Amino acid sequence: MKIMYRYIAGLMLATALVTGLTSCSGRHARDGRGTVAGESSMVDYTKKKPLRVKFYLERSGSMIAYDSPRGDGSFKAAIVTMLNNLPGKHNRLFVVNDGIYPYPKGIDQFVSDGNIFGTTKGIGNPSYTDFKKIFDNLLNKTGQGELSVLVTDMIYSVKTMVGVNPQKIFADAQGMVSSVFKENVKDKSLLVVQMQGSYNGPYYAYDAPAKGWNYDGKRPYYILVCGTNGSFRQLSQDERYAKFRDFEAMGGFQNEMLFTAYGHDNVFAPYCSFLMATKEIQGRFKPGREGGNGITKLVDMRPDRETGKLRLALAVDLAGMMMSETYLQDPKNYRVASDDQVTIREIRKVTERDRTPAEKKYIGQATHIMILEIDEIHHHQNVEISLKKAFPNWIASSSTDDDTNRQSGLFGKQTFGLKYLLKGIDEAYTRVSDQPYYFTLSLRFEK
Which PROSITE patterns match (predicted)? Predict the structure, then answer.
C-alpha cells in the first residue's frame, strides 16, 4: 500500500512540476494579521547597503571588572567578535553611563586596545547608569537602515539608592522602561542576549553603591540589539550578518529573548511547503493548484488505510530567527488553529537525505521539517501554525532582589532587578500587540 502510494505521489508530483503550485512565498499567503508569508525571503539583500550600526558600551563601576587583566578575556573577545563580524565601514562607537558619549578614537583603535575600560577612563560618570536616556536613544534615535547594540550589565541604578527599599527601586525601573518604550515599539524590535564572562574586581551592591567588595568568578552581562522591523528583517535574512546574528556560537552565550510586535509589520514571514514523497508521510492527498514554487494547499485528503492517520511533512525556513534550536524544535512552542485536530509530532532539521530530486524544489531554502498528524479531515478548512512568544523562565531565574550576598551560589548567575526591567519592556510590546506570536504559517486542507 505504501509503495503504491509513493508511486501515485510521484505521478502527482510530476504533474505539479508542469502546472506550478502554491507556497508561502510563491502566492504571498496572508498570515491572518496582514503579513505576507515568505515576503522577506524574496528580497535580494546583496543589492542593499549594509546596516549602519551604533555600538554602545556601558562604562559603569560594575562593568570595569569584566575586562580585568586577571580575567580570561572572554568579555573583550565577545565584543571584538561582534565588531569584526559587522560589514560596512559606517559603524560608530559610544560610551554610556550618566550620558551618551562618542568614543573619540574610533572602532579600529577600540578593537586593538589592551584595556578597553582603561582607555575610556574619564568618559562620563561611572557611578550610575541613566537607562532612561540610553533606552530612549536606542528606540528613538535608531532609524531606518540602522541597528543599535548595547553591551551592559543591566543593573538599574540611580544617583541616590542608599536606604531606598529595593521594591521601590524595582517599581521605578519597571515603570521607567514601560513609559520609555510606550508606543515606540510598534515598528521596533529588541533582541536581549544573556552572556557570561569572567569578573575580577569590585562589585557595587545596591545598598552600598560607593563601597565595592572584591569578587572573582563568573558574572552575567547582556547584549541588546535594537532596530526597526525592517532592519531586523535584513539582519535575519542578509547573509552578510549570518555570523553576527549567531550569538549562540559566541563564547559565553547563555540565553536570548526577542521582543517584537506581531501584526503590524512582522519581522518574520518564513517560506514553507508540504513535501510529497518523504518516508514520513502517511495517507493520501493531492497538491492544490494555485501556482508558485511550493505547496501550502492539499486536497482529496484521506487517512492511511493501515494506520488510520494522515501524516504530513511541512518544510519551513527558520533560518535567521535569532532563537535557540531548543525553542524552535519544541512543538509546545507552537499554536495550531484548525477545525479538526492537527498535532505537531516532531520538528527536526532538514538533512541532505531530504533533498531528493523529487523534493528539492519544494524544500527550497527550508531548514526544518514539521511532522503534522491528523486523525481525519471532516470538511474544508484553513490551518494556521504560529510560533508563540512567551516571557521565558530564564529571566526570572537570572534575576535577584538582593545582590548583597556574594557567598550565594547564585551570585555569579543573577542580575539585580533584571526581571523588572525586562517585564517593563514586555508590557510595552503587549500593549501594542495582544497576539503573542512571532509568525503564522497559513495552510489549506480540503477533504
Answer: PROKAR_LIPOPROTEIN
